[in-house]
């Protein structure tokens, strides 16, 4: 699997039970808390269980179900994308102990929607199936291209 664990890992998309509410991390413009769908709660819970188990495996530890359920309870209000980011960062920075709930919440607080866009763009640029005449942009070409895009966008505004 490509970089970015646990992005795209099957365990982070399969349903499971938990209770969760939508928060500012799910939608920064949302000022009210709304009840999440059962599917979303299950996805979050399963992602947390899977990711805690994977971190335990990386440490050579079997994590008890009771401890895993505490992680679910402590992290179930965080969006799925932020959870994936947090567990990915925790894996990159893994020491000798399983990260605490507060450490994972801290990692999750650094996630932004732009992170996923930048990561996906980098994956596309790094892939090996580029045309044979592919050449990266030279210095200054990016600025010229951005200026052209902005100029076109201004023309289309009413």
What does this structure look like?
Helices cover 54% and strands 0% of the residues. By secondary structure, it is an all-alpha fold. The protein has one domain (1-158). The longest helix has 22 residues, at 38-59.
Describe the SSE topology.
Blueprint: H1 38-59, H2 65-75, H3 80-92, H4 101-109, H5 113-126, H6 141-156
Instruction: Give the overall pLDDT as a whole number.
Output: 77
Question: How many structural domains can be distinguished in the coordinates?
Answer: 1
Distance between the termini: 45 Å
Rg, rounded, reads 20 Å
SSE arrangement, N to C: HHHHHH
Helix content: 40-55%
- The secondary-structure class comes to mainly alpha
How many β-strands, per DSSP? 0
Please tell me what the overall shape is: elongated
Unreliable spans: 1-10, 13-32
Number of helices: 6
Main sheet attributes: strand count, strand direction, barrel closure: none
Tell me what portion of residues adopts beta-strand conformation.
Answer: under 5%
